[in-house]
Amino acid sequence: MEDEAFERRNGAALASARRVLSRSFLARTLQDSLADLVAHGPASYDLSRPVDVYGGGIVADLESRTAEILGTEAAAWFPTGTMAQQAALRCWAGRTASPVVALHPLAHPETHERDALKVLTGLRVVHPTADPRPPTAAEVLDLDEPFGTLMLELPLREAGFLLPSWEELTATVTAARERDAVVHFDGARLWETTVHFGRSLPEIVALADSVYVSFYKSLGGHSGAALAGTAEFVAETRAWRHRYGGRLFQQWPAALSALVGLDRELPRLPGYVAQARVVAAAMTEGFAGLPWARVHPEVPHTHQFRVLLPYPADVLAEASVRQAEESGVGLFSFWREAAPGLSATEVTVAAEGLDWTHRDVVEAVGGFLALLP
Predict the structure, then answer these.
(1) What is the number of other CB atoms lying within 10 angstroms of the CB of residue 43?
(2) Half-sphere exposure (CA, 13 Å, Cβ side) for 221?
(3) Which H helix or E strand runs over 182?
(4) Aromatic amino acid beta-eliminating lyase/threonine aldolase domain: from which residue to which, for each copy (predicted)?
(5) What would the DSSP string read from start to end of 83-111?
(6) If you ran DSSP here, which 8-state letter would residue 217 be given?
(7) CA angle 193-337-331, nearest 5°?
(8) Cβ-Cβ contacts under 8 Å for 190 (sequence gap 6 or more)
(9) Is the pLDDT of residue 165 over 60?
(10) Least CB-packed of 82, 202, 246, 349 within 10 Å?
(11) b (16+ CB within 10 A) / e for 337-355
């Protein structure tokens, strides 16, 4: 109950804060979400059309739009990214006749899915590296057992939203091909990688045999994901979607919010990435006098990055809430213990953070530090 009370307090503080770097979902009410769809939905879709029934309609149109943006033959809507990737990796296991998936131990299936990949699909995983960074081509080539699929999370969230360079990525994909493996991109946040790679989405996606993208991460949709690839592959994933219970009766609210996100947020993401680099540099300066403090990576690869500070998570969380309550400035929304005496948070820069200057961020960090013991 104490944690629930704190979450309510935190959400209320962020909702009422006059200045934030991004508006957390913790600060959004049902009324806010409905009002957003009413205000922006008509510009993204003809609301006089019938609702979807087990797909079709707006869902089919979203699938076509997604495939067009990613440059693939087809795309299939899934209610969750976990389900989408279960389906993708299961399909590739059947096609490659190999139950082994090579992925990073910090990848989403290993850290956030309660071993669903192993329990539900019977697949087995191997790790090219345990280092907190994307695997290299040499590590993929040197794996001491065969594997059928290489899954790359782009960016690797739990390592600090890290991306390889374009040259490193292409070399790693080539290494997988040399091992007779297919390549699947966990691209939940792939949308904003174009800045770091200096390539378009179709160019990035073309490296892989399949890709998963999220509609609520980065794009601000209510929920939902898509798998994209060849028409034949996508058709097979639809069969698994049905088996997993993902063929929902109606999905138009989530699909409509996804279309709004593609129209509104996707074009803004390069600007968010640029501003995240301004914010990260200012935070590095602001925390410079605090031993063990770290902004990682120093130059963000996407519009998100991590901050690590030498305090318990509950102390930092209390300071974050107090700053929002007392000054109306919300810098951080949560803290988690990363190691004994060291805690981490994720910073996201979106539309609300575009008008922050370097000095604004430094001063806000100073205000935050003043609240720490």
Answers:
(1) 10
(2) 30
(3) strand 182-187
(4) 58-284
(5) HHHHHHHHHHHHHHT--EEE--TTSHHHH
(6) T
(7) 60
(8) 154, 201, 204, 205, 211, 213
(9) yes
(10) 202
(11) eeeeebbbbbbbbbbbbee
Residue type, 247: R
**Residue whose pair of structure tokens reads 């600090």 in the numeric block:** 160
d(Cα 73, Cα 205) in Å, to the nearest integer?
Answer: 12
Q: Is the pLDDT of residue 244 over 90?
A: yes
pLDDT tens, residue by residue, 49-74:
999 999 999 999 999 999 999 999 99
Q: What tokens appear for 36 in the block?
A: 């957003």
Domains and CATH numbers, the chain: 2-32+267-369 (3.90.1150.10), 52-249 (3.40.640.10)
122 CB burial (10 A radius; 0-12, 13-18, 19+): exposed
Rounded to 5°, angle at Cα 297 from 291 and 299 = 110
Q: Is the full-model pTM beyond 0.85?
A: yes
Q: Is 220 left (phi over 0), alpha (psi -120 to 50) or beta?
A: left
| Alpha carbon distance 198, 150 (integer Å) | 23
The stretches of 189-251 forming alpha helices (DSSP H) are 194-197, 201-205, 231-243
Cis peptide before 253 (omega within 30 of 0): no
Count of other CB atoms within 10 angstroms of residue 308: 19
